[in-house]
Amino acid sequence: MPEYFVVRGTVEPGDKRGRELGFPTANIALRDQDGSLGDGVWAGWIGRPDGTRLPAAISVGRRPTYYGADGYRLLEAHVLEFSGDLYGETLTVWLGAHLRNQEKYDSAEDLITALKNDIAAAAQWTAGHPADSLPAAGESPLGEVRRVAG
Ligand SMILES: Cc1cc2nc3c(=O)[nH]c(=O)nc-3n(C[C@H](O)[C@H](O)[C@H](O)COP(=O)(O)O)c2cc1C
Q: Where is this region: Disordered (predicted)?
């Protein structure tokens, strides 16, 4: 039985570097700064207020490439094949498969190479775990991470 981590949150402005890298992200603050959800990179889905669900490659952590170990822990979702604006929307995020740990890369190029692999892996995983198979998310407080059985 698959298990998901589910978190709701309102998309905050990032520092826009994601756009410069070519991989914009929807940034969501996490309430539990060191809770059950570990740092890492995940394949999953996001749900928009209008009910639309979109596949995503999701990063949870402190972005060690840019901020070092004392950075702020947040969730960033790069939504696959999407170019719209999500700022201010309250999203539901389903984290389904842990792909790898957060890494400190030597260059933006190395991070971009990793991101491309993450996106391919997330596309593959979401194809096998379609949006209509996701468990109900419920209404949890914003930023609070919950485990939900699939
Ligand atoms: C799928 C994915 C994987 C990521 N993996 C890492 C990582 O391993 N190390 C890291 O420092 N940052 C990682 N990041 C975060 C990027 O550094 C971050 O998206 C970028 O700096 C843009 O930040 P911004 O949204 O605040 O502009 C990842 C982001 C995504 C979407």
A: 131-150
